[in-house]
């Protein structure tokens, strides 16, 4: 059974909605997704560091549509691991664990990896929204579209714009 | 530069001393290391589950002698990652991060991995006290001696009885 490493922020968890809401709370400015397309997350949201270090940021993140349903369908066909950069933000560790248990009760603790760098992760497939994680990865790579990567060429990676597209790629027989 | 995955419990952190102390606190019985040699941790300490889920268990663990000094010497020659099973015990995540920051300030967040299973970890070398982690690992493997593995044959792994022995193995030119 092939193994998949699935990223959390920007792939399972809609951190952009969190950032947009918190930016509005802090500044009164309603940013549109169009205005920040192509910008790095820290460029689009100058208060990002403050927000990701605030209690509740990760635990209250909304879901990316389709993530639950598709992941559930993948489980019988792939060995799924959730691999999330977390050690940079101490609060995020416990919050991410709770968030996963809450939204993905069919994901067990054996399938969770909270790391800093993803360079020692080896699976057959990786789904991630950041080039830094995909570019050095030796397996098959899917770039999950997010505003920060939307303008860039996907290069050697396969771009997926939604969880429905992930499903079409990884479970083609079901279509 | 070669990569190393270093385990925490039983390799950096002296969890046996924690277990022995807590067993005495709970039962009044002073277990000797000799009496539990060869037993699995959960067989030696029937209250293990309670202890590892108690606040402070991981954060107050004593150090295995020599761990700090040898790890510091390895850093210029190897890319060191601390890879610890932690997601089974929610409290352990934050406590292990703080423990590492406290005792190993030269280890950065990029070098920490908190996981459930270690099966998707790929480094050149792994140092661990559990066969379940070493047996399926594809790189070079060092079995760090602990009472639960002391009687067993190391099999294909190289047994190391101390951090001094790790140093002799990985930095032979320094001896």
Summarize this structure briefly.
The structure is a homodimer of 175-residue chains. By secondary structure, chain A is an alpha/beta fold. The first copy, chain A, has helices at 15-27, 41-44, 48-52, 67-74, 90-103, 131-134, 163-170, and strands at 3-6, 79-85, 112-115, 125-128, 140-144, 158-160.
How would you describe the overall organization of this protein?
Chains A, B: Belongs to the 5'(3')-deoxyribonucleotidase family. Chains A, B: It comes from Cyclobacterium jeungdonense. Chains A, B: This is 5'(3')-deoxyribonucleotidase. The structure is a homodimer of 175-residue chains. With 175 residues, chain A is of the alpha/beta class. The first copy, chain A, has one domain: Rossmann fold, CATH 3.40.50.1000. Helix content of chain A is 32%, strand content 15%. Chain A has helices spanning 15-27, 41-44, 48-52, 67-74, 90-103, 131-134, 163-170; strands at residues 3-6, 79-85, 112-115, 125-128, 140-144, 158-160. A six-stranded parallel β-sheet of chain A has the order 3-2-1-4-5-6. The longest helix of chain A is centred in the middle third of the chain and has 14 residues, at 90-103. The two termini of chain A are 20 Å apart. Chain A binds chain B through residues 3, 5, 81, 83, 86-88, 90, 93-94, 97-98, 108-117, 120-123, and chain B through 3, 5, 81, 83, 86-88, 90, 93-94, 97-98, 108-117, 120-123. Strand 3 of chain A pairs antiparallel with strand 3 (112-115) of chain B, so a sheet runs across the interface.
